[in-house]
Amino acid sequence: GRTALRACGVHNVCRLLTRRAHGFYARDAGVAHRKNLGLLRRIMCQESTKFKNVWTTHSASPIAYERGRIYMDNYQCCITSIAQQPRLIYQKSKCAKSEKIEDALLLECPLGEMLPSPSDYKASLIVLTVQNWLLRLSADSGEVLEKVYLAGSCCKFFRYLSWDTPQEVMIVKSAQNKLPAAARQAGIQQTVLFYLAVFQVLPLSFIGMLEINKKIFGNSVTDVAVSNGILIVMYSMGLVRLYNFKAILEQFMEQPFDLGQEFNWNGQVGVVGKYPFGLPCNIKITDTPPLLFEASSLENAFQIGGYPWHYIITPNKKKHKGVFHICSLKDNALAKNGIQDMKCCSLEPDWIYFHPDMSGRIIHVGPNLIKVLKLKEVKNHADQMEIAEDFTIVANRENCVNNSVTVTASGRVVKKRFTLLDDDPEQETFKIVDYEDELDLLSTVAVTQIGADGRAHLDFHCNEHGILLKSIPLKESWDVTYSHEVYFDKDLVLHIEQKPNRRFSCYVYQMVCDTAKDDD
Q1: CA geometry: angle at 301 spanning 299 and 307, to 5°?
Q2: What is the pTM of this model?
Q3: d(CA 361, CA 228)
Q4: What is the pLDDT of residues 124-167, one digit of tens each?
Q5: Which terminus in the chain has less CB density within 10 A, N or C?
Q6: pLDDT tens, residue by residue, 158-171
Q7: Is 436 within 8 Å of 40 (Cβ atoms)?
């Protein structure tokens, strides 16, 4: 150990560990992994590298994709997309309607932690069934590893899974509680709107369950969410309020419980997480928690990001739809050039969000323009920030001609009484923008539809400068009226399409390196 320290010129263990974490040493696993990914990126962007459609399937039920696995038939069928051609991992017998899966999350093993069971070190799937069972399934076999019954006497409709802290703390949310029409006509009041059950994962452990009550948070609550330790409460008038979720758990916890523990709670005797008792509602919010922040935004659209912290809202009036204000979280000051408006004339609105690469940049996507923006200090005003353009990506509309006046073969002059929309299907239009973190590439899907035949291509851009590195034409026709998802995962491209009448299709493309000309 001392020899290694002297050899690299570092004489402090803490500094050595820090440098190792940052990948300063050639033998470090992180360095090798980064070099391999850099090599894959260069190979993928070569002109001779193609992406070939190797597999296509159709289904009457939704198709989902998670980290190299394709799930079909309500998660009863799992197919790996990592092999040269997708192959079946497992196929379970068709489940009854009462066992239908409502939502799912992929759970991956944390690094450097001792876990109680060997199965915990392999990827698993957390699923929520229509009958309020929370199951942990093996990602390799579909075997049930753990099961927890959620709904006791308090709630019967748990429907949504989400991460508070990714791969660490999970939230199970109920559907909004609504009284039957007859009960409302009889004057019965429903004060509890939502239930939230909180779990630590790997090992799966119960933290607590709480209710979102009108008496505490107000009558006009429409939805709630939890993210990164913040409870987000949304209201019908566009108001968004933020509370410290961790502080709420600590302040209002009446009694902690462990899964499998026998309990006597409010006159009920049972086992935590077992049928028919489920989970106790052991977090009772008796007073309005301290408010961290509030903002009013059209359709409750509210995002936080950047450095220093900023937030993005749309002023809460319909006439401002498509106008975005970028403000400092510290003092609500609007950043210089902080009003972003593409002035689009389109059926689908433009959208904006903080870049997922943690650079603090902002991505603003319009029908024919993608702007990557950055926050920087105003010159000679260190306490003020401004929004500056980092780079732009422009749709290819060179062949688009939109003449308002045309002349027929007979010489008659015809004047158009309308102009094309910015997202007219006959013009190339951006539909999807995503980020591949391991290859550090920005991916875009642009579509042009002529008649009934739509054509799409997936482009890879340098995330730092926006330079186009690769363009992949998708073979299948793309109908802009359908719902589409496109996943780009290292050497894989996967396109999931939802057609009318719940018809789903999945197209898988694999990277192939071949210098020979191939029509495929």
Answers
A1: 165
A2: 0.86
A3: 19
A4: 999 999 999 999 999 989 999 999 999 865 566 899 999 999 99
A5: N
A6: 999 999 999 999 99
A7: no
Residue 139, Cα to own-chain centre: how many angstroms? 20
Question: SS3 for 246?
Answer: helix
Q: Is the pLDDT of residue 2 over 80?
A: no
Give the integer Cα–Cα distance in Å for 243 and 252.
13
The span from the CA of 11 to the CA of 34, in Å, is 27
| 403: pLDDT strictly greater than 70 | no
Amino acid 450: pLDDT: 78
In terms of Cα–Cα distance, which of 323, 277, 273, 271 is closest to 297?
323
Neighbours of 457 (CB within 10 A): 16
CA 278, CA 151: separation in Å to the nearest integer?
A: 5
Average pLDDT over the chain, rounded to whole? 88
Q: Which amino acid is at 204?
A: L
* Residue type at position 126: I
Give the domain ranges of the chain.
96-179+190-296
- Greatest Cα-to-Cα distance within the chain, rounded to the nearest angstrom: 92
Structure tokens that stand for 31 in this block: 């360095």
- Residue 95 makes CB contacts below 8 A (sequence gap 6+) with 74, 76
DSSP 341-368: E----SSSPPEEEE-TTSS--EEEE-SS
